[in-house]
Design a protein that fits this description.
Blueprint: H1 2-16, E1 24-29, H2 37-47, E2 52-57, H3 60-68, E3 74-79, E4 82-87, H4 93-110, E5 114-118, H5 131-153, H6 159-184, H7 192-217, H8 222-233, H9 248-253, H10 258-271, H11 279-297, H12 311-316
Helix pairs in contact: 2-4, 5-6, 5-7, 5-10, 6-7, 7-8, 7-10, 7-11, 10-11
Length: 317
């Protein structure tokens, strides 16, 4: 318990306590030229410790398309003799805040007039962009807690019934989470059905991951489940701290774990309806499929299930 407590505190502190930019893609609109624009760009790269990765775009429309497709986090362009820095709060409040602050400071230092504008703002009820992280976190944790409850209070379920009950509580739980955040609190205006199903998919995947580990490891199943989903998955999900500000390894790993996939799917569903990705759904599907397959193939090892009557005893009766 002491070791796990230290790991829990350490993993979250390492990932979130001091967000540092590592690689922030940004669009540079090359035409028209801006006086002292090169000095501003050089100043931004210096201020961000060379983590700004600039991509040239011929016009604002192409740059904005790249922003909507989340290929870049900001646009640097000419504006009334100065520089306009367009950021996207929806792509990550922490990244947008960092870029905006650096842009103003660099503009003052170089004598370039800088206008910072959030062209993809977060919703008013969620100014820090944390609501989607919280609902995904709730789905992950309640997903494997639900599977634990089934293993304790519904010990006799056979494999097919256990999977079916996991689907059922995932659908109900996902609905409850979405309804609480949208209808009750009004924190985020969700695309309700899609967000509900993403939450349900996340809960089901999390529940089946525990069930898989319970099949393989029995009473010790909570340790790898907690490790994958909470110690590693949640800090690296990009929900509380955007991926460009996470340690590089975590930023890459997080996309391949259920918590990161859930946050990514919710994020694009809420803020980027016309530019959604299939990748996070494939990640959730892969984890769910592998977990269900392992559970089904080695179901005889799972501690649950109904007691079977030996064949000779059945014949005697």
């Amino acid at each position: 318990t002491l070791f796990r407590s230290g790991l829990f505190a350490g993993s979250y502190t390492y990932a979130m306590a001091n967000p540092t930019p590592h690689r922030i893609p940004a669009a540079l609109v090359t035409e028209p030229e801006v006086a002292r624009g090169e000095a501003f760009v050089a100043g931004m790269e210096k201020a961000l410790d060379a983590s700004l990765e600039l991509h040239d775009y011929p016009d604002v429309a192409d740059a904005r398309r790249a922003l909507d497709e989340q290929k870049v986090f900001a646009i640097v362009r000419a504006s009334d003799g100065g520089v306009a820095l367009d950021v996207a709060g929806a792509s990550g409040a922490s990244v947008a805040e960092l870029l905006g602050k650096a842009g103003i400071e660099v503009g003052d230092a170089t004598g370039v007039e800088v206008t910072v504008r959030d062209v993809k703002p977060l919703q008013r009820g969620d100014p820090r962009g944390l609501a989607l992280f919280y609902i995904s976190l709730a789905a992950v944790i309640m997903g494997f807690l639900g599977a634990i409850q089934l293993s304790v209070h519904a010990h006799g379920l056979n494999p097919a019934e256990r999977i079916a009950f996991t689907v059922a509580y995932a659908l109900l739980g996902g609905f409850a989470i979405a309804a609480a955040v949208d209808w009750w609190l009004g924190a985020v205006d969700l695309p309700f059905v899609q967000s509900w199903l993403i939450l349900a998919f996340t809960m089901f995947t999390s529940g089946m991951v525990f069930t898989m580990f319970n099949t393989l490891m029995g009473r010790w199943a909570m340790i790898p489940t907690w490790g994958v989903m909470v110690l590693l998955g949640n800090p690296s999900s990009g929900g509380a701290v955007s991926w460009p500000l996470l340690p590089s390894a975590l930023g890459h790993i997080g996309r391949w774990l259920p918590p990161g996939a859930s946050v990514n799917a919710q994020h694009t569903a809420v803020y980027y309806q016309g530019h959604q990705f299939v990748f996070p759904y494939l990640v959730l599907a892969a984890w769910a499929l592998v977990s269900c397959t392992v559970f089904w193939v080695w179901r005889h090892r799972h501690p649950g299930g109904r007691a079977r009557t030996p064949e000779h005893a059945a014949a005697a009766t």
